[in-house]
Amino acid sequence: MFIERLISGIILLLIAAFALVMGGNVLYGILFVISLIGIYEYGKAVNIQNTALFGVGCAGAVLYMLSVMFFDEFSFETLMLTLFGMFFAYVILYPKYRIEQVSLAYLGVIYVPVMLFFMYLTRIMTHGEWLVWLIFISAWGSDTFAYVVGMLIGRHKLPSKLSPKKSIEGCVGGVVGAALLGVIYGIVMTKYVNGFVDAPVIFGVAGAIGSVISQFGDLTASAIKRNFDIKDYGKLIPGHGGILDRFDSIIFTAPIVYVIIKIYVYFGGTI
Asked: How far is CA 140 from CA 3, 7, 87, 213, in A?
């Protein structure tokens, strides 16, 4: 199991690195495919995959992703159209569906493609080829440090029924580790990229906050799976489960890193 998980992890890392380095259409295409697989896994997990509401949600997800590439100024409008479409199906087919199913279907659109595509939005920012790595530093870097610290000195269990194996020490280690990685990455980038004057500070902050959100995202995915009595979202990735099992923390971290950078730049920061 460990070897299988390790090999899958290395392959995923190589694919992610290739997509981030190439950017543009390559990253967009990979995120497009990942989002479609992810939203299918989500729909199956919450038992709405065979409903008209889910069909509208998938169409809305595709429409949103296309708007990001070709009509960015209409991205918000596509989400409104998707919601209207779901309500239309809800009313026309009443009482076949309940409002809870409408909520679940719409949540899937926001949870997977919308949040995940913040990775693409970060990549197309000024200096995005460097900034986008903060998402993975915050998420996967945090996971690594949390695991190592938890294994070495973890004594106090996290007060949550969602992850009884996680420790408070491990969670703190993940935050500190991601912050340190962010600072180190910022120092390195300051030497090679003009304008990254405050990079060590903002990257460190992004790493710390991103780590907290990353761990929250992992727990959120666990909560959804427990609500619907499933172990994994899928079996696509050997040793890891489905797309959502591997990208659960990235889904939450991507929009947070994007927002941190935008706020920093808005208030006069330079990167």
From this structure: 18, 16, 38, 12
Which residues are within 8 A (CB) of 253 and not within 5 positions of it... i.e. 6 or more apart?
135, 138, 139, 210, 213, 214, 217
Q: What share of the chain is helix, strand, coil (3-state, %, to 5)?
A: 75, 0, 20
Give the domain range for residue 22. Answer: 2-266
Q: What is the pLDDT of residues 95-125, one digit of tens each?
A: 999 999 999 999 999 999 999 999 999 999 9
Domain count, the chain: 1
CA dihedral 156, 170, 6, 225 (to 10 degrees): 70
- Please tell me the distance from the alpha carbon of residue 78 to that of residue 71, in angstroms, as a whole number: 10
The two tokens of residue 182 are 């962010």
pTM: 0.90
Domain membership of residue 271 (yes or no) is no
188: exposed, middle or buried (Cβ count in 10 Å: 0-12, 13-18, 19+) = middle
